[in-house]
Amino acid sequence: MYDLFVLGQLMDESMNGYLMQQILQQIVGKQRKISFGMIYPLFKRLNEAGYITLNDYLEGNKRSKKIATITDLGRQRFQELMMQKVPLNPNLEFIYTVKFRNFHQVKPALRQQILNEYKEYLLDSQKSLQQQVTSMKKTPISKEDLKNAQWVLSLQQVQMQAALDWVNASLKKL
User: Which intervals of the chain form a coiled coil (predicted)?
Assistant: First the structure.
């Protein structure tokens, strides 16, 4: 899941683990804690796979830093990951966010493919929400619970529609 993020960031410029951690933390927000204990093993694994190189960089009298640089094999892997369909899982929104942030690295045809796949996911989710609204009325729960559940579903529907509007506008720009 984080391979795409790291490779995408390195497509723009080489960087150390500290900067990589800061950028990733900004993307995931406060919901998840991104530790260096996650970044450095990821760097090591990507290095061993040949996707990146790690070089020590000494700045003055400070401790040396490991600078990660993407390789040609890493650029190829990045393109492969961008082309992969995003699986339905709890990380789906994060993966799409990473893909969207890397649109400048891929051709317009791939951008369109990714946006269309996301749109398909949103439309399926919208149908599922509508089914929930319908089936909820048949569920034997208290009127107050039903009212609150419908209220929450209405929020989800508004969010889904906003995302669909965003996708459609993005597709028009392409």
Answer: none
Q: Note down the domain range covering 49.
A: 1-85
Instruction: Supply the pTM of this predicted model.
Output: 0.89
pLDDT tens by residue, 2-27:
999 999 999 999 999 999 999 999 98
**Which CATH number do you get for residue 19?**
1.10.10.10
Q: For 25-93, where are the E strands, in sequence order? A: 52-57, 65-70
Which residues fall within 8 angstroms of residue 122, CB to CB, at 6 or more apart? 160, 163, 164, 167
**In the sheet where 52-57 sits, what is the strand order?**
15-16, 65-70, 52-57
Residue entry with tokens 């996301």: 118
CA dihedral 135, 138, 140, 143 (to 10 degrees): 90
What's the rounded mean pLDDT across residues 70-96? 96
